[in-house]
Amino acid sequence: MSRFLKEKYNILEAYTPGEQPRDGEYIKLNTNESPFSPAPEVAQILKKSDIERLRLYCDPCSTELKASLASLYNLESENIFLSNGSDDILNFAMMAFSDKGAIFPDITYGFYPVFAELHGVEYEEIPLKADFTVDENDYISKDKLIFIANPNAPTGMELPLESIEKIIASNPDSVVVIDEAYVDFGGTSALPLISKYENLLVVRTYSKSRCMAGARLGYAFASKAIIEDLEKIKFSTNPYNINSLTAKLGVATVNSNDYYEAKCKEIISVREYTSEKLREMGFTVLSSKANFIFAKSDIIGGEELYLKLKERKILIRHFAKDRIKDFNRITIGTKEQMDIFLENIGEILKER
Questions:
Q1: 321: left (phi over 0), alpha (psi -120 to 50) or beta
Q2: Cα separation of 179 and 306, whole Å?
Q3: What share of the chain is helix, strand, coil (3-state, %, to 5)?
Q4: Alpha helix (H) ranges present in the chain?
Q5: What is the pLDDT of residues 38-52, one digit of tens each?
């Protein structure tokens, strides 16, 4: 770091992204990317794109994309916010709504504490229960900005909608952010509560179920007033943060919703298949509603398994945090990829 960096940033512990290797071909089961390509209609947009128009600024309001999402989810455009990936939205929420502090689980998406520290927000991390579930009672009447990833990461476990509603209802003077990055893989969305609670912000992404992690597109649902707050911050930082091509791809994705729903069902099926096979090998596998599973073995440690698979050109995600160091997060790939993964797991266990 240079001597010019503000002192308060010297102590930041930045978020660590999953490995993106450049040293050959891997089966990547570590970053929760989709194993499938975007819909054919999305590919057509890329082929037909008018490169000449890239010299012009994009629509800062992404009007067409907002209208498409509003139609899909039976909302008004004023209830939708768009940004450069859902991380941007989480960051804006921390900036906008955290005057009284923030609160979130101790085992969850790693960006929440990073954003809190970046903006100097006092925050509380509440331990998950022994079974790795969120206890709704820990968030009742906290009167702070609340972040709950549902389904949670890296566990993949879901907090029931009635519990989510209790939390929202008990914190009427604070915003509750429900981060639904993985909800399309069998979770239950809090979207129906938007019209009932003005303090609810539901955040989604195109990175997982919409097969567009590299396009960087996130969206959120909330009351008109909360959307206006987020728009104010966006237009005070980078109003053109969704490029023209990404916006077009976003519209084509909405128009191909049946394709993505079918792919989600396929991932759910492979997830259940993989979970069962791992349990047959003696693994503990948490119940997941995401496009990944969280699993541990009593035969081999989490870090050792991660390293042995990496030697075999298979990447999974290991976390060094003490409470979960025996677990690994395994993204669900295609059936063929998971069969290769399972075959290699079997060979590694035999070596033990």
A1: beta
A2: 27
A3: 45, 15, 40
A4: 40-48, 63-73, 86-97, 111-118, 161-170, 224-237, 244-255, 257-280, 302-311, 335-351
A5: 999 998 887 777 777
Q: How many CA atoms lie within 13 A of 348 on its CB side?
A: 23
Side-chain-side CA neighbours of residue 25 (13 Å) = 1
The set of residues, in sequence order, having a beta carbon less than 8 Å from that of 203 and lying 6+ positions away, is 86, 89, 90, 93, 177, 178, 179, 180, 181, 218, 219, 220
pTM of this structure? 0.95
In the prediction, which pLDDT does 24 show? Answer: 66
Of 43, 37, 2, 15, the C-alpha closest to 249 is 43
Tokens of 49: 């794109």
User: Do 200 and 193 touch, CB atoms closer than 8 A?
Assistant: yes
For residue 180, which amino acid is it? Answer: E
Mean pLDDT of 294-320: 96
Give tens-digit pLDDT for 105-138. Answer: 999 999 999 999 999 999 999 999 999 999 999 9
As beta bridge partners, residue 339 has none
CA distance 102 to 69: 29
Compute CA distances 324 → 106, 211, 341, whole Å: 11, 28, 21
123: three-class secondary structure by DSSP: strand
Residue 38 gets which letter from DSSP?
Answer: P
* pLDDT tens digits for range 182-221: 999 999 999 999 999 999 999 999 999 999 999 999 999 9
Rounded CA-CA distance 91/114 in Å is 9
Cα–Cα distance for residue pair 194/187, rounded to 1 Å: 17
Q: How many residues does the chain have?
A: 352
Q: Which residue has the tokens 């010019």?
A: 4
How far is CA 200 from each of CA 147, 151, 156, rounded to the nearest angstrom?
11, 16, 22
